Amino acid sequence: MHIRNVYRDGIDFTQLSTAYLPLRNYLIETSKSHKTIDFKDQAAQRCLTEALLHRDFNLKIRLLPDRLCPPVPNRLNYVLWLQDIISASRYVEEHDSKSIVHGIDVGTGASAIFPLLACTLEKSWKFMVSEIDPYSFENANHNISANKLEDRIQIVRSNATSPILLPLYIDEDRRFDFSMCNPPFYSSLQDVAQSAEAKENGPNAVCTGAEVEMITSGGESAFVGKMVIESLSIRGRCRWYTSMLGKLSSAAEVIDILKSNSIDNYILTEFVQGQTRRWAVGWSYTDIRLPDSISRILNSNPTIAKYLPAHNTIQQPVLSVSRKSLYEMVSSVLSSLSHIHFHDDPHGRDPSDMEIDTEPRAGVGFLVFAQEDTWSRSARRRQKRLLGDSARPDLNLLSSVSAASAERPNSPADPTTQSFTVEFTWRQGRDRRLFDSFCSHVSGKVQ
């Protein structure tokens, strides 16, 4: 579960029922000190979702008995990941913290939970959302109005012939920061039945969705695959295209489609809630790169590892007497390189700090701007041949370089030294070889 997810430590149902009294009607006592609900009871599920949204987000929501009941912790995971994507994408840009972020929710559903959660967490976010089902469209509109968010969430009606990414076609001059989607999961009613039978002890929770929400031709991977193909012709209208997926095999199929269309700037994560695991894939046509903490599933098993994108974060262990000494050493190496620019990273954080909201610290790292390879031997030879040529290429590499404490003991050979890590994070660029070469050169000089 995401590190900022308020449900990481579970839900205290007794405490929750004091904040939302209707939930008391569904509490089941499993022990003297523990209560829960019957997750196979549709009404109990809906009441739990209402209670969490009421207590933790001050949202009033109407949930229909014949439409999907969204689990709040899982949906919150997706929104928090998008927060991380937006924050990292704006890493090197001069943005007012109150500048508007524009998002899209494809098939917002009867609850419209994604834009409601996102707009509650982020006051500067606005959405254009689509919905194909008239019943769900009407209820989503109700929930948006009930929470007085009509000025920030615009809902548009799609149909069977509409593009999946309809909002991107309504105003071709408008640019969006991200799209999100929870696509129909199954390919047919038979697929639904087979999935239920495959669960050895039966499903942990009842599924309340309608066919229009759960079934699409070819299943979820085909749906998102069409989204990828659509995005090829509208590329830059959206900075990050993303979608949640219910099966790892679906994520693998989508990644194959991305690769077959030469889209190498993609990201993959997973959302874990109890025994339920979901995945999310994102891709971008920009040269913005995201750190591994956002773009890759950390500590993944071999089955997942083969689908992950290449590393945008590289760590090099080093020994130094202090972080300050290491900082000065890195600064000296960078100063020796020609035709690069660097300065203190205004967002600098110790990479060992897990919290994304950790305060920036001076003297932790640098932002490095390079227009070309000027550090390798071949580059230096080429530079001599081109000496006097004032023409320079455009920016090709932007990397952050940070010094962090390492979780290893001091060197027994020299107890005055400590273990540190120099962390390189690719922030912008299209040439991965340039980033790898830069990391290798600086790491070698710092050793």
UniProtKB/TrEMBL annotation:
Keyword Manganese recorded: no
The highest taxon in the source lineage is Eukaryota
Which SUPFAM superfamilies is this protein grouped with?
Answer: S-adenosyl-L-methionine-dependent methyltransferases
Task: Identify the species of origin.
Answer: Lentinula aff. detonsa
Q: Which GO terms describe its cellular component?
A: nucleus
Protein name according to UniProt: S-adenosyl-L-methionine dependent methyltransferase
Q: Name one GO molecular function term.
A: methyltransferase activity
GO BP annotations of the record are:
rRNA base methylation
Keyword entries, A-Z = Methyltransferase, S-adenosyl-L-methionine, Transferase
Which residues does the record give as S-adenosyl-L-methionine binding sites? R75, G107, E131, N182
Can you tell me which family this protein belongs to? Answer: Belongs to the methyltransferase superfamily. METTL16/RlmF family.
Read off the lineage from the record: Eukaryota, Fungi, Dikarya, Basidiomycota, Agaricomycotina
